[in-house]
Amino acid sequence: MSSGAAARAGPRPSEDDPDVPTAPVIRSDVPGSFARAVFHERHPELVRRVLDALPYGPGARRAIERLLTESTGGVLEPLGADAHDREQWLAWGDGLWGRPWGEAPFLWAESWFYRRLLDATGYFRPGAWQGIDPFGPFKAAELAGAAVDDELAALDGLAGLPGGQRARALLSSALWGNRADLGFGITAGAPGGAVTELVADDGDVLRAELERTRGGRICLIADNAGRELLPDLVLVDHLLADGTAARVDLYVKPQPFFVSDATTADLLAALTRLRTARSEQAAAIGGRLWRAMNDGKLGVRTHPFFCAPLPYHDMPDDLRAEFAGAAMTILKGDLNYRRLVGDRLWPATTAFDDATGHFPSPVTALRTLKSEVVVGLAPATAARLDATGPAWRTSGEHALVQVALHRGATGR
Ligand SMILES: O=P(O)(O)OC[C@H]1O[C@](O)(CO)[C@@H](O)[C@@H]1O
């Protein structure tokens, strides 16, 4: 990374291309902003819940409390000399060290918060707490909940639907599954309230493109575990079972991140939940996915960059090469969307194609709106939503399906 890359709250050098549209980077030091509320309201509540959920000893508890204080009023200090990823973070934070947290880009500062929270709990240190997910109890409770039983039972009803209708229903449940994010629930109330509307819906474009590329490789960048990952897995099974994809690569996080993001351990828990479900369909899907992993049709992949504080624009070449050649990459959720288009205060009518032109394959975003970032809206839609006040961007009651085929760039 070049010097000062992540330091300024303005455009990163690699995004300085005059052909790439740009907008102010979101920061958490703006009074009254959503980003500030995440640090000053959501994180304290999250920390309280983590400390209630696991019997951490005094050292870890103190470290977690210190992190909270530091993240709302302190400066950014590099990782200790013994941290396995110290050099990586030194580079990612080049130019930011020693500056107040609030001056860092919001995406950067949030990612750093989760990295430091793992540190504080002993996640990386040899010892009894190594590898223990601080969000594990929340994830487990959600997966064991009755709501999941009901959702899995509903799969039996879908089995008899005609193909097109079934595909639409599965896409829709993967989309709205993104509401069930545990971090979001901390301040937004329990997920599952009134769903309003799709503010952009490229569903038909997606279906036509998947038909056109039938039998290709599809990548799915997962977001949350539990009630989001289950419908994602059902969608993956559908893509493989009906031949839409010959292979699916499913990307999970290498470590706990943004509260409920799915790791390999969460994927295994979800698979077990499917395989042991009372619903015949759910159990059959779990069995098929298991075998698809056995025979390599379903690849489970990860990369340190999935916990990086940077936009996908800056993904390293080895990861870029994995997406290149995919018929489609589906990105789930709000955080992936922020990283895809850049965590900036874009005019909502900025073309999705332009904001995602850097991505190495055609892309689809399936996302409920839980942060201020949005692009690709029709001017009339943006104006109508803005007239209702700013909450539509963050309430989780709106969603979008956006597709960029990038045909010009890829020649597909
Ligand atoms: O799980 P998702 O859909 O990525 O949403 C997580 C969202 O929650 C927040 O972390 C706010 O707490 C957003 O910044 C983030 O985009």
How would you describe what is shown here?
This is Damage-control phosphatase ARMT1 family protein. This protein has 412 residues and is α/β, with parallel strands linked by helices. It is 45% helix and 10% strand. The protein has 17 helices and 7 strands. A 7-stranded mixed sheet has the order 1-7-6-5-2-3-4, with helices on both faces. The longest helix has 20 residues, at 34-53. It is globular, with a radius of gyration of 21 Å. It binds 6-O-phosphono-beta-D-fructofuranose. 6-O-phosphono-beta-D-fructofuranose (F6P) binds at residues 38, 42, 110, 178, 181, 183-184, 223-224, 258, 333-335, 338, 370-371.
- The CATH topology of the largest domain is Rossmann fold
Shape: globular
Q: So, the CATH homologous superfamily of the largest domain?
A: Uncharacterised protein PF01937, DUF89, domain 3
Radius of gyration: 21 Å
The largest pleated sheet is described as: 7 strands, mixed
What does the average pLDDT come to?
A: 91
| CATH class call of the largest domain | Alpha Beta
Number of helices, counting only DSSP H or I runs of 4 residues or more = 17
Bound molecules: 6-O-phosphono-beta-D-fructofuranose
Series of H and E elements:
HHHHHHHHEHEHEHHEHEHHEHEH
Low-confidence stretches: 1-14, 189-194
Please estimate the helix content: 40-55%
How many strands appear in the DSSP assignment?
7
Binned strand content: 5-15%
How many domains make up the 3D coordinates? 2
Beginning-to-end CA distance, first to last residue: 31 Å
Structural class: alpha/beta
Domain Damage-control phosphatase ARMT1-like metal-binding: 39-381
Region (Disordered): 1-26
Organism: Kitasatospora paranensis
Cofactor: Mn(2+)
